[in-house]
Amino acid sequence: MTIEVPAVAPAPRAQRGRGTALILVSSVCFGMSGTIAKPAMIAGLSPEQVAAARIGLAAVVLLAGIGLVRPRLLRVRKTEWPLLLGYGLLGVAGVQLCYFVAVQRLPVGIAILLEFMSPVLIALWTRFVRHVRLPRAMWLGITLAMLGLALVAQVWEGLSLDAVGVLAGLGGTVCSAAYFLIGEHGATTREPLGMVTWGVVIGAVAVSAIAPPWTIPVAILDAPADLGPWHPPVWLLVVAVALLSTALAYALGTSALRHLPAAVASVIGLLEPIVATATAWALLGESLRWVQLAGALVLLGGATIVQMVHSRQTVQVQPGVGQESPASAP
Q1: What is d(CA 315, CA 310) in angstroms, rounded to the nearest whole number?
Q2: Are 306 and 142 a contacting pair, CB within 8 Å?
Q3: Which of 61, 129, 231, 307 could form a cystine bridge with 224, CB 3.0-4.6 A?
Q4: CB environment 110-132: b (16+ within 10 A), e (fewer)
């Protein structure tokens, strides 16, 4: 089965500016999530418990807020449930679980950089599933991204990074790619805020099945955590990552897709690993070797090339002219 999605037309300058501002703020909020959540895990919460609390609180906030302000967005047709289930299970629950497992075992910057290998998977999906020919610049970007990943992981040292952490990070890559691909289609068929709300609710149910909320130790929630010069209670960090880095980040990021093509928004979203690395250095005292820093720059450069070329194709290629649209997915 093939779902045809119209080619994306360039947005007016005012809309592009609004979309750019939204995705910038969303990227900063997402990028801070690992730095905010890691002290809670150091204090004793497991990655699964942090993810369950984060997504659960965000689901309550979004469901209550959208239900009061725009309840019509919560209406779902029967044919939309497969899309929402995929978005919630992969784009929300899968991304968060894999990311927090990676954050617990790896420096925050490396964990989020692994997740941002997703542009490469999106490019490969476009070429081999959507059957869209990719220009040489795209393959150059893929090669640079893979080289950067090798430098970050220091493969010549026998993968000196924690193996489980790296696998979790790569799992996050797959889920993040699914988030963009499913979200790209969903944003064209229904209101983004409604999709985000149901996606977060579904993700919360899935993660709660792995880490039921009642298993979270109350004593740890009241314990102080170390976040730079501050020592907030663990519960405050959980609330912050739920409201700032989940509910607000998802709502702003998906709303930006009303004004920007998904491929363009994801280029700006590459700000996230920079925010994550900078805040982890400033507040958690984490550092990277110079080789890993160089690898991070190469990886980001390659991913940027991939997404910029993809963005141009999405805007320029018109479906029905002897070529399948780049936005068509099976």
Answers
A1: 9
A2: yes
A3: 231
A4: bbbbbbbbbbbbbbebbbeebeb
For residue 155, what pLDDT band results from cuts at 50, 70 and 90? low
Nearest Cα residue to 286 out of 295, 277, 294? 277
Specify the residue for token string 């930006």. 256
Angstrom distances, CA of residue 51 to CA of 84, 160, 205, 256, 326:
19, 26, 11, 24, 33
User: 5: pLDDT confidence band, cut at 50, 70 and 90?
Assistant: very low
The token duo for 307 is: 């997404």
> Nearest 5°: phi and psi at 224?
-75, 145
Question: Using one digit for the tens of pLDDT, what is the confidence trace for 123-150?
Answer: 788 778 888 777 888 889 888 888 887 7
Q: What residues form DSSP beta bridges with 108?
A: none
**In the block, which residue shows the tokens 């064209």?**
188
pLDDT at 326: 35
How far is 267 from 57, CA to CA, in rounded Å?
Answer: 29
Please state, in angstroms and rounded to a whole number, the distance separating the CA atoms of residues 299 and 15. 30
Beta bridge partners of 3: 329
CA–CA distance, 62 with 21 (Å, rounded to integer): 21
DSSP string, 264-308: HHHHHTTHHHHHHHHHIIIII-----HHHHHHHHHHHHHHHHHHH
Residue type, position 302, single letter: G
Asked whether the predicted pLDDT for residue 324 surpasses 70, the reply is no
Task: Using pLDDT thresholds of 50, 70 and 90, give the confidence band for residue 2.
Answer: very low
Structure-token pair, residue 98? 């894999």
